[in-house]
Fold this sequence. Notes:
The protein has strands at about 1-5, 10, 15-25, 35-40, 45-50, 55-60, 65-70, 75-80, 90-100, 105, 110-115. The protein is mainly beta.
Amino acid sequence: xxxxxxxxxxxxxxxxxxxxxxxxxxxxxxxxxxxxxxxxxxxxxxxxxxxxxxxxxxxxxxxxxxxxxxxxxxxxxxxxxxxxxxxxxxxxxxxxxxxxxxxxxxxxxxxxxxx
Length: 115
């Protein structure tokens, strides 16, 4: 399993970013995909999940209405569209999947929201 995130960066409060996660080494369409984040000094937290069937999504309360998770099974890629960003969204964002044996992680991409 390989997960490679991209799209992070520095953005002003109220701005937008789209994160991408390119997946390989497994049958992408069969698995739920998740985005987590970890801010300095805090535990890693689940941000959003998209199921394999029906593209059902779930979000942390802190990002509902601002973030959208989506997937393109033809491209083996999962996305996280982040709008109305706040300074408290600053964190390293990780793509993740659980294949039933273990949870796999990407290397993470830094998102910094600051003026």
